[in-house]
Write a structure and sequence with these properties.
Distance between the termini: 30 Å
Bound molecules: coenzyme A
Radius of gyration: 18 Å
Shape: globular
Structural class: alpha+beta
Mean pLDDT: 94
């Protein structure tokens, strides 16, 4: 599995021109204490409700970096952005022509940004000691589960997290979360096959209208992005280097 190539950001990395930008962020940045000041009172309230300090720090890191990145696109101060949510919880910024989505898992996060089309992104840490087949039985479609079981044991973990991240990216792009039944659409999962939405039984035309691409954040992580756009052009930016601009 070849890692996505993450480019060092510069002023040009905030021009979209029909492309989708994918930002890789660290949830354990070098400057955690400087990040609180970007968050709203509501976000800080959410952060402070986590039982574990690690989760509080990761939440602050993710949301501060989301604000810094979006603020650069919008030429606005990061702490001035005001987020709203659709009725399923998908955040958006009112009156700004920017589509975005964020995902975080273990130590890393991904942020996807598009200027014209809805987007969903997902990152999944390929956690060890995880019962992939049991989770697949519960959530994947019958075809996906069958394909997973048919693979050699050493490929099953990667295939499972391919499938999970692709299904999550799709439901996040659609903005409806688990209101779309996870067994009512199929994605590819085999490590030797391209990432694609195979079929969308819950909304048959969607398989043609929404495009899926694989993202490889790091060896121990799987990632995927789905965009409501026929031609998907991705650019990858290393958000860990952003504070140095
Ligand atoms: C909330 C959900 C949208 C994603 O949750 P998740 O995968 O645990 O978390 P991620 O880190 O990928 O994404 C969380 C972010 O998505 C965004 N989000 C929330 N609701 C959303 C929605 N309806 N649509 C798109 N994005 C949404 C938020 O920005 C959220 O960030 P925050 O929690 O820091 O505010 C939802 O799909 C979910 O609960 N999924 C779990 C489903 C599951 O059990 N899958 C099993 C294997 S397929």
């Amino acid at each position: 599995m070849i890692k996505s190539c993450w480019n060092a950001p510069g002023p040009a990395s905030f021009t979209l021109d029909g492309t989708t930008h994918i930002w890789l962020i660290s949830l354990e940045p070098d400057n955690p204490d400087e990040l609180n000041r970007y968050l709203s009172a509501t976000e800080l309230g959410r952060a402070n409700r986590f039982a574990f300090d690690k989760h509080r720090r990761h939440f602050i890191a993710a949301h501060a970096q989301l604000r810094i990145i979006l603020g650069n696109y919008l030429d606005a101060r990061a702490d001035s952005l005001s987020f709203e949510q659709n009725s399923y919880g998908k955040p958006f910024i009112k009156n700004f022509p920017l589509y975005f989505n964020i995902s975080h898992s273990n130590l890393l996060g991904l942020i996807a940004v598009n200027g014209k089309h809805d987007v969903g992104v997902d990152i999944e840490w390929n956690r060890p000691n995880f019962n992939e087949l049991r989770i697949a039985d519960r959530f994947f479609s019958a075809t996906e589960t069958k394909q997973l079981y048919a693979l050699p044991a050493e490929l099953q973990k990667k295939a499972f997290f391919n499938c999970w991240s692709r299904k999550e990216a799709y439901i996040k792009a659609r903005g409806k979360g688990l209101a779309i039944p996870l067994d009512q659409f199929q994605v590819s999962l085999r490590p030797d096959e391209p990432a694609e939405i195979i079929s969308t039984e819950h909304d048959p035309i969607a398989a043609k209208e929404w495009k899926l691409a694989q993202i490889v954040p790091d060896e121990q992580y799987s990632g995927a992005v789905v965009v409501n756009q026929k031609d998907l052009i991705l650019e990858f930016w290393d958000g860990k280097l952003l504070t140095s601009i």
